[in-house]
Structures are given as C-alpha cells and as structure tokens.
Design goal:
Blueprint lengths: L24 E3 L12 E3 L7 E7 L2 E6 L4 E9 L9 H15 L11 E12 L3 E12 L6 E10 L4 E10 L2 H13 L1 E3 L2
Parallel strand pairs: 1-7
Antiparallel strand pairs: 2-10, 3-4, 4-5, 5-9, 6-7, 7-8, 8-9
Length: 190
C-alpha cells in the first residue's frame, strides 16, 4: 500500500484539548468524512516509550521495555479490491491486512483469538471525534498471556486507513500502559 506523506514537522499542533467542556460531535463508522488532507495520527510521546521506527512508509513503532509493551500506528491506503463502499464494511474487510502489516505475532505460542470490542472515539484536531472500530486479541506467549488492542478505520471512498495497536502483557500494569497510549491518540488533517 502507498503511504500518505507525513505532515510537515514544523507545523505546531495543540497537545491537548484547548479547553472546551462541551462534548465533541462524533463522526460514526456509518458517516462519511471528507478530510482536506490526511488523515494523520497524532501520537503521544509518553515517558518510558522509545522510538523503534518513525514514519517509515506510514508506520511508527514504539516500545516500553519496563512494562513490556509495543505500540504501532499506520496511516496510508487500505488494501486493494475492497467490496464495501462504506467505512464500516471496509474497516471489517481491512482487518486481516492490518493484522499482517502490524506488529509481528512471533511471541504467540498459538493463534490469537481476535474479537470485536465495540468502538473507540479519537479526536480530530480537537474539533470533533471519529469513531474507530476496536478489536482485542488475547494470545498466549512463553512469558504469559498478552493482549493486543487494535483501532482501525477505513475512510471511503478514497480507501485511506488508520490503524493503531498496543500489545502488552495481560496484566494490570499492561492494561494501564495501553490505555494511556490509546487515550493520548489524536487525528489531524495537517
């Protein structure tokens, strides 16, 4: 898949919500979004996370050795040949490809069980939220069970995809580290 070019590094973006107490409008998986550019991930840089890959063909990867977590984002085109023309259907069709281009499953001692886990809202330039499909994979490894939380959305008709995943030990510390990262994600058009 062809990646979407990275946004200019010189552009300053707000680091947090500029202070509105009103809930943001939500663009659901059944709505169409019309980005002027992008969409691009806004990725939090939390303490303890190191950059493994940065903006390589639309992929960013980070690791947190202290907690044993990995975090990956992808922004670019979705797979060719999708039959769905709506975001919800295209997102479901994109999941197998997303799981292949994401973090490797080398630690798994058996196939992961992947389930849909509802949706997750991510703010776009702090003006509205976009609903992402959320999937969870729990799988055994030699060091104990692990949990991979995945956010995915295909934006039709241009077949643009945003994919994020956090893979951590299935422990309270792993869950907390994953939630901090997921809660810090944002989307930008710039």
């Amino acid at each position: 898949p062809e990646p979407i070019p990275a946004p200019p590094v010189t552009e300053e973006l707000p680091e947090e919500d500029p202070g509105t107490s009103e809930p943001l409008e939500v663009v659901t998986l059944d709505d169409v979004t019309d980005f002027k550019a992008g969409p691009y991930w806004g990725v939090p840089f939390e303490n303890g996370w190191d950059i493994v890959r940065f903006d390589e063909q639309g992929v960013n990867e980070f690791s947190n050795a202290a907690v044993g977590c990995q975090f990956l984002t992808y922004q670019g085109y979705g797979p060719e040949g999708l039959t769905s023309t709506d975001d919800r259907g295209a997102t479901e069709e994109t999941l197998p490809t997303a799981m292949q281009i994401g973090l490797p499953w080398t630690a798994a001692t058996s196939d992961p069980t992947v389930t849909s886990d509802g949706s997750f809202e991510v703010p776009v330039d702090w003006t509205y939220n976009v609903e992402m499909q959320r999937f969870v994979a729990i799988y055994p490894s030699a060091d104990g069970d692990r949990q991979r939380q995945m956010l995915l959305r295909s934006f039709m008709p241009n077949n643009l995809a945003l994919y994020a995943e956090v893979d951590c030990p299935a422990t309270a510390a792993g869950d907390k580290a994953a939630q901090v990262i997921l809660d810090g994600l944002s989307i930008t058009e710039y």
